[in-house]
Fold these 3 entries.
Entry 1:
Amino acid sequence: MPEMTYRDALNLALKEEMRRDPSIVVWGEDVALYEGSFKVSRGLLAEFGEERVLDTPISENTIIGVAVGAAMGGLRPVAELMTVNFALLAMDQIIDHMTKIRYMFGGQVNLPMVIRAPGGGGSQLAAQHSQSLETYFMHAPGMRVAYPATPADAKGLLKTAIRDNNPVMFLEHELLYNSKGEVPDDPESLVPFGKCDVKRSGTDITIVAYARMTILALQAAEELAKENISCEVVDLRTLAPLDAETFVASVKKTGRAVVVEECWKTCGLGGEIATRIYDGCFDSLRAPVRRVSGLDVPMPYSRKLEKLCIPQVADIVAVVKETMAAKY
Amino acid sequence: MKETSLRAILPDHELVRMYEQMVLCREFEESCAEQYTKGHITGFLHLYSGQEAVAVGSTHALHKDDYILSAYREHAQAIVRGAEPRRVMAELFGKATGICKGKGGSMHLFAPELAFMGGYAIVGGQFPIAVGLAFASKFRKEGRIAACFFGDGAVNQGTFHESLNWARLWELPVLFVCENNAYGIGTSVERSSALADIHKRTCGYDIPSVRVDGMDVMAVHAAVKWGAEWVREQNRPYLIEALTYRFRGHSMADPGKYRSAAEVELWKARDPLPAFAIRLIEEGIVTQAELGAIKQESIAIVQEAVTFAEESPWPEDGSVWEDIYA
């Protein structure tokens, strides 16, 4: 398998799918001529032309709404939001329209569309450009939410997202774009939605994570292995549908769980995962489920302060050790 | 100036059909009010009485496969486009036989087979969706335009301005039709818009526009006919502002204290139904007796719709989980 970056894997997924299906169109702010703020759409305009790859005005709500209409009209739009932070300007079209239309119209129409949105913190971009809004989307019934951790998953999940007949919020972590990994070159190699990936097997404790937090969890597991703590790292891959079956099975085996989430702790993903674990295998637990979360503060600019707000490998290591040491 | 003869514009049967539909819509809405009072229709209910000339005049000027989108006062738009009154009524009753299986209700009618692409209840929500449908039509070379209906209140939403800009920028076939009924709930156009001449708002986007008497079905028809063909040929947006009036409140919950009885009476004197009936009679297209028969027929259709809705089953509990995902 060829090695490539998360960015190039996404780019390849777009190209392969656009070659396969002429009804796929791509638009967003600076995606065509400028080739994307993060260069994920590099080369698309050159290969597919201005009929299928279009720059838009800075009108986020309408970027999504036009995609909703185009999907209704028989196309498969892939709309890029320059960053997930700007999704807040588009929440009316995302939540009130995109996720509701199929249901409130009695299932008479499908919306096969994807919203790509880079996000996450860690680049000293301060409060308005560093948010992790994943729970905002998984909270609303009617859409899928994917958030890959590796280049292989990035490619396989984006291809699945594009082929899905439901709206998909496809989140990408800005700090992962340059990360490298092996990626299947078979254009029919897809990663299914609703299937966690056990990225590392272990026996003592389960770490449930997603996106960049998965990478940090794997690094923490490596350190903990040196102290004879065997961690199983479960990568959610899609937040909706949420594959509780896989992480509950893992916790049944290990008896302990830590959830790592980049989002704010309050009403975060970790609370949901913990509850699913309690619902699914309370009797197997040998310690309470713990969360390693983003701090409940607006993201500060200073890199010294910012670091405090985002889970770090050392934080995961510490909470895993505390969980292992807990006596009940 | 002598008015153009109706017969020079449309054949008799279509003129009669237009009148029949205006009467049907009026009877349907008045029946809805009654069913709401009886508690058979619940939730929000926004009635169209007074505005019939807009839906009927427009729909007859569009191609059958042109997309129509509207807001939440859209029963008439759906019915004129061809939705069965009984299935619309059943939807309002929340029954399984409703046009959206009872999941949408009054504000969310939808009939894709008729290119009726929905009633939307967030003010201004339908603008970008109409632009997207127009994009799909142009991309697929279908030759259909998107006719996007909205109220005067919607022009102060960001989506209005974003969508006008976008439709012009991408050269998309969208016909924007503002049904200016003078009030956004209880706030008049003058009290909400810096420029009350809504059609002039398109200047900033290089989109031509026209204002038309929305109480005159043939004036609406003429404007939409011209506008729709221009949009189709030019692949560019156009806007029509139809001045109209709702005889009832914003919704059934509206006591209407923001407007005077005299004002309402003034507009009721311009009721589009009798105005059109008089022209049809004057030109010998229908007789007084035929008008009476049309009304009786409409009442019968609506009564049958109510009976159908009453007798229809409620949705199965299990259906609550259906239709979320494809």
Entry 2:
Amino acid sequence: MLGLTPDEWVAVGLSLKVASVATLASLVPGIAVAWLLARRDFYGRALLDGLVHLPLILPPVVTGYLLLLAFGRKGPAGAWLAEFGVVFAFRWTGAALACAVMGFPLMVRAMRLSLEAVDRRLEQAAATLGANPLAVFLTVTLPLSLPGILAGAVLAFAKAMGEFGATITFVSNIPGETQTLPSAIYTLTQVPGGEGGALRLTLVSILVSMGALLASEVLARRVSRRLGSA
Amino acid sequence: MALAVDVALKRGAFSLEAAFESGPGLTALFGRSGSGKSTLIHLIAGLARPDRGRIVVGGETLLDTGARVSVPVHRRRIACVFQEARLLPHLSVRGNLGYGRFFAGRRAGSAAEIAPVVEMLGIGHLLDRRPAGLSGGETQRVAIGRALLAKPRLLLMDEPLAALDEARKAEILPYIERLRDEAGIPIVYVSHAVAEVARLASTVVVLEDGRVAAAGPADAILRRAEILPAHEAEVGALLDMVVEDHDASGGVTRLTGTAGRLVLPHFDRLVGSPVRVRLPARDVLVATQMPVGLSARNVLPGRITALSPLGEAVMVEIACGEVSVAARLTRASARDLGLAPGLAVYAIVKSVALDPAGVGTGRRTLEI
């Protein structure tokens, strides 16, 4: 199918793996941060908001370099995590970390908007019926903000599929380990006769992104029909 | 004492300082919008905190700012029926009914039975529907059922009928009466409609600008025009009576009570069932002699106990048997008839002035 070479398949598979892991791993922190920003007024709220949005504004190369400084083998976080056997530098896990960080602001933004849109009066009603705050969150807030949470996850996934600058700066461009779709396309455009491969991978890129968007649209529609608002 | 409240709260220009107690049965919080009714409900439910105060329900202190006691909302076991119902849109009717029941069951070890509540509210055919597909009246009945199944020790109802049209109100009122008489849970009911309060309440607390303007038995409060200035036309006596018989050919239903007999346009209620009738003071005539050749069917003999001026009018209190009826007359009428306390008179009411739709079921539970 598509006439991809084995090397190109490797890049596609790696990209899907990196993007999936990045999205799944940032789901819970994403919801937590979105909830904090949407619902809580605390000291340092503006700082957290800024920090989350930083990767959106900074040049991706800068974000990648900061990750390298922090999570590289000699970086403070990297050295500490290495003691537990968790290594990011020049591994696919590092690519996932870079993608997660880059997609985080998009994810949090969508989730936060939908959490803010949940009718607080429904949560109050649930509380008067005996639900403690955690139960209210799990049975009312979360289901009602599901469309936005899905949208956030899809955005993060799409962003991860396309992330280039931070990834290549942080974990380089190692075929089979850190060479994701964009890196592979970039490499192919730099070698003579690589145009065909670049075009094929571009096509795959478009297909995957479109597929993700479509899937999220279908899911969101199903959810909102279930909520009775469609 | 089912509920004792003494709270104070200040938010900008609005200040609330209210203290009242209520027993079993239904207590109406009555007042115009902005008088603090809903705020009070939120404070009792625990959805808001007063600046200072004490709230005791069924002997348990839920809030005491002095003693730093504040039971969180979900442990208060006070269920609410809100004006907008607030059904959970992502759950079916069954899911909504089961929601509070689930938490009540975990707390008490046993859950309330769904079937009797579903039957009482007539919502059996709705169980698999989504809240978005329900009518306003159905929505409120489900909300009432959901609140009941949470096994609350107090039920708060915040203008549950305000968003409904007259037909839907008439559809729900009997269910609330059954709730009051059969569920055995004290109810605090917020309303700004005299007809609702007259029909449902055993106790009335009148709120005005965040203060309790008056509190007491419904009959004693709802006849006092001076504390219900906005509802002058609606004040009057409440009579608890029993259906004596129906006269199908005459199109009337006869009631009997300690005040005597009343004849109303026919309405459907079993003979012997207790009913409550509101006698608006402005629909009551006064005669000093037994009238003859009169179309009005209701002539209650009594004795004047008090005359009190009310603007251009006079409120005449007439003791009929053990109950008291209020009549609103012009000063000229009162003067020309020579009305004075102690005078024997007849209170006269046209049957059609008494609205069968406003007849509530009488309270079977005794007031304590």
Entry 3:
Amino acid sequence: MKRFIGKKTAMVDSGYAAVAVGVSTGGLDALKFILPRLPENFNLPIFIVYHIHKTSDDFLVCHLNDISRIRVKQAEDKETIIPAVVYMAPPDYHLLIEWDCTIALSTSEPVSYTRPSIDVLFETAVDVYGEKLIGIILTGANRDGSAGACKIKAAGGLVVVQDPETAQADTMPKAAIAAAEPDLILSLEEISEFLCNLNQN
Amino acid sequence: MTDIENEKIEIGLLLEAIYRKYGYDFRDYAKASIKRRILRHCNLSGLKTISELQHRILYNVQFFEALLMDFSINVTEMFRDPSFYGAIRESVLPVLKELPHIKIWHAGCSTGEEVYSMAILLKEADILDNTQIYATDFNEKIIKKAREGIYSLEKIKAYTTNYQKAGGNQSFADYYTAGNESAVMNKNLRANVVFADHNLVSDASFGEMDLIICRNVLIYFDRKLQDTAIGLFRESLPSGGFLCLGSKESLRFSIYSEDFEDVRIDEKIYRKKNSHG
């Protein structure tokens, strides 16, 4: 299994335009770990699909915003994407990136049994950002995101997967590793470091 | 990147072909979403490229009709977002009750679940007989289903819970007749409903309305088309007329946002402001 750590991640090219993250079971701890570690001058937009129950309120988004230095908000339909903002998919809606760099939401049928779906986010984000997209798959107990990760790879983007050994649920990272040959397989700490390093380049 | 760029060209051409051949205009739909519908359809039909799909669409009407069904996203339920219907009861019906006659337009009503939900609210407020509802969708086949008002019993269970969450305290079972697998909504609920085929993209306003409901339709339009639709609603509402959008839609990014005021911002219920002043 390919595994790159610390120093190697510091050499990742700059020039990325956006980060798309997919996370499921165990996601709260993972997001609470990574997001507060990002510096306030972080300069890329981050899109997150986190599988949560469809009737969840906005407590999670508010909490993540409170503990982070960059702004965390629920993605709104038709809003213009700006850097240094974390856009979270609302419960029960797919999160799509539109060709004019705006957010789109959709209530179309679930994909891989889930809405929002990581695949939908990854596939639409890659159409906009192409090789300038970073896709990150974190802990989860299903296989959502693997197909999307393959599309990111095919377009020349970068795929990072949480090391399954460090994940609360390893099915999703393992599926992504098997399907997409990720560029980096990292722990949460290393993923945070990787994201912070993007900024310095 | 070339593949992605080529697909963008193919999508533009396909939508142009559909418009010129069949008159349905999807050219200003939100592209990311429509691309997913198109690729899904290619996949289900075993077609490798969008150009192949375009050829089939042009030469085979049935094939086009199948794609059309796929383009209209018919994900809906009765009392969808129960708190919205609770807000209608609290903040909108008391105002409507004061009117001698009420006109409601449900734009993009899909298979009709939300139309029957509204009819139930109106009946319980004792104003259904006084109301004319226009329920429209661009897809004739879907409108036919809405008119029939037949829903699976399995879904009716969930709808009953939604009804109660929306503040309903009558017996929901009184509103339908149950068969073996499905339930037929009571005829009297649709006595004053006109189900009609209307396209928000290309058709004009058909009169002044006191309340317009258009939920989870505008998310599939791009900003320009969204403004066309909101402009149409604005034209169809008198001062004080209500406009209701889906729970994740808003007027914030519209050029007409200043023409409306919030009634219940948490539930996306707006009112048209007085035009003078």
